[in-house]
Give the backbone structure.
Amino acid sequence: MRALQPIEAIRGISARSQRHTVRPLNRMPGNARTAISLQQAAASPSRNLLVGCMLFLMTLIVSFAAVLTYNATVKPDNLYNTLSTETPQVVATPAQGETTEAMQRIRAIPSYRT
């Protein structure tokens, strides 16, 4: 019987059942921290999907907040035009033969302008 190594006890694996592929740190190519991070990222696609969705939503929220702040501080007219409704302009043209009577009714409207 072989004694359990301390690192195997910490990782929760036994010497006979290698569930996890463990690479010694001294034989890892490049930066060990980057290699471990990439290995963990490749091992959990569901977590990567969740993080990707969160990043996408946070990007949308931050971009909306930035545009809103810009419109409120730098160009407030853009914000006011977006939030308010414009008064529609109506053009009324009387039919042939009813010109004078129709024009008198149109001019009687309180907000009439020529």
User: Anything to note?
Assistant: The first helix runs from residue 6 to 11.
